């Protein structure tokens, strides 16, 4: 028997949200300013992704001093008021 479109159960998975993370990473006497876009459902997921990024970037470092300047979710809906008529969609 052939299934119709009504018989198919569509599974829609909500995509993970995007977060912008701005931070300083200090290894020894060298400080580097980073700006990253990470994906996660919540702040705990983003912190976990940040740790993975740090381990991948500084894999030979014994100690990394991290100062997070900004960690916020990226808005998916554009704010048209920011353009003040200078942009026409």
Helix content: 10-25%
**Biggest beta-sheet profile:** 3 strands, antiparallel
Uncertain residue segments:
none
How confident is the prediction overall: mean pLDDT? 84
How many angstroms separate the termini?
A: 47 Å
Query: From N to C, what is the helix and strand string?
Result: EEHE
Strand order of the largest sheet: 2-1-3
* Number of E strands: 3
- Principal-axis shape equals flat
Task: Supply the number of helical segments.
Answer: 1
Judged by helices, strands and strand pairing, the structural class is: alpha+beta
Estimated radius of gyration: 20 Å
How big a fraction of the residues is strand? 25-35%
Which key terms come to mind for this protein?
single chain, 89 residues, alpha+beta, flat
Walk me through the topology.
Blueprint: E1 17-27, E2 30-40, H1 43-57, E3 65-73
């Amino acid at each position: 028997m052939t299934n119709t479109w009504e018989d198919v159960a569509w599974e829609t998975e909500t995509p993970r949200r995007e977060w912008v993370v701005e931070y300083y990473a200090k290894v020894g006497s060298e400080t580097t300013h980073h700006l990253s876009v990470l994906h996660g459902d919540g702040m705990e997921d983003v912190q976990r992704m940040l740790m993975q990024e740090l381990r991948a970037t500084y894999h030979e470092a014994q100690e990394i001093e991290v100062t997070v300047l900004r960690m916020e979710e990226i808005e998916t809906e554009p704010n048209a008021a920011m353009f003040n008529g200078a942009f026409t969609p």
